[in-house]
Amino acid sequence: MAQSQPGNDGHTIAHLGVGAFHRAHQAWYTHLASGRDDPWRIVAFTGRSAEQAHILQARQGAYTLITRGADGDAFTQVASIRSAHDGADRARWESVISDPQTRILTLTVTEAGYRLGADGLLDTAAPAVDADLRHALRSPEAPIATAPVRLALGLAARRAAAAPPLTVISCDNVSGNGEITRSVVLAAAAVLDPGLPAWIDENVAFLSSMVDRITPRTTADDVAEVERATGIRDEGTVVAEPFSEWVIEDGFAGPRPAWERVGARLTVDLAPYEERKLRILNGAHSLLAYHGLRHGFDDVAGAFADPHLRFLVEDYWAVAAASCVLPAGDLDEAIDATRRRFANPRIRHQLAQIALDGAHKLPHRIVPVLEHAVRSGAAPEVPASVIAAWCLRGDHSADDAAALLSGVDDASAAETMLAVIGRELRRLEDDPAGAARRAGAVRS
């Protein structure tokens, strides 16, 4: 196909990890923000498989976004991606990153893609990372598989081209993702060229961002629906809920799209927004997952429609909001938006998926809410019941629950928290539906 070349018309955003979420989120924002007087285009690269690049090439990067509301679907033809490539195409990758018209690099690689070791740093001894570093040093043609090494090589090419400063924005569900990206890229760069990290520090801004939009897996029925509604056979179709949020740490090294005009938010302090999302949205997701599965529900909308579980979530939100630092109006708005999202029956967000990896998720979502409740004298039973329900679902012990509290620095508070969890665990074991019924009785 004929592909857009960087430098022809406006600025370029390079993206690593093109998939459904990127197309439902950052590419959609860029499509809305890019106008005739401020043209931006995305040159996208796959993270692992080249399949998505091949699919997007069939329509020169364009694709259909289905916005799946409770009352029906809306269809948008998104045209911000101008070309898509196999991420293993090293020559093309380095060409795009080194082009002066490329001013932003975004990535959606997920936590595993950062290749972190147990110490939270780049695991240079991991086989894939070690192989990439050795190949990169030996041969300029060798394909590279890991994101940190790809990024470091791209920035080395940019330095060689004397291109202007670049902004790197991490766009996944990892807190502090910009600093993590900076850390792993500098570690890879130091192996490739001891002088490269200093150039990166002077010429590249690494920004964190908080992203949020549920993007279910596209099905054959979705592709057929697009063809019926639009006449376009689009294998690149992506589905998303109406809600979308993007909060970006400010500090750009150069020009950027006017994303704030189409709903994104720029801030100098991302932490309060990450805290709000983890506790209000993700914490309530975990509550519905562990309690909902015990009550026979399989998705968020079904569980949230149950009166007892709905009351339990509302009680949880009251406790969680009190633990957040954002103004009450912002929190009320977020809770109201989350109610609408949870009630959308046409977005099938599976509870079993949410319930995975609770040992990693609960310390960030639920434990801070429980700790605040204990310290402030608020009612701690509802957040404690989430951990108790997790224990019962996974057949975990009291020791497992105690391990979740390892980050609590006040031994007395941790002991009180563990006692409340123990009481809730015994209550659920004796009467699985009791906690939900009691919540309903309190609020009715």
Q: Any chance you could write out the topology, listing elements then pairs?
A:
Elements: E1 11-16, H1 20-24, H2 26-33, E2 40-45, H3 51-57, E3 63-69, E4 72-78, E5 81-85, H4 90-98, E6 102-107, H5 127-138, H6 147-160, E7 166-170, H7 177-192, H8 196-203, E8 204-207, E9 209-212, H9 220-230, E10 238-240, E11 245-249, E12 265-267, H10 271-294, H11 300-305, H12 307-322, H13 328-343, H14 351-355, H15 358-365, H16 367-376, H17 381-394, H18 398-404, H19 411-430, H20 434-443
Helix pairs in contact: 4-6, 6-7, 10-12, 10-15, 10-17, 12-20, 16-19, 17-19
Overall description:
- The protein has 444 residues and is an alpha/beta fold.
- The protein folds into two domains: 11-268, NAD(P)-binding Rossmann-like Domain (Rossmann fold); 272-443, N-(1-d-carboxylethyl)-l-norvaline Dehydrogenase, domain 2, CATH 1.10.1040.
- The protein is built from 20 helices and twelve strands.
- Helix 6 crosses helix 7, helix 10 packs antiparallel against helix 12 and helix 10 (271-294) crosses helix 15.
- The longest helix has 24 residues, at 271-294.
- It is globular, with a radius of gyration of 23 Å.
- The N and C termini lie far apart (62 Å).
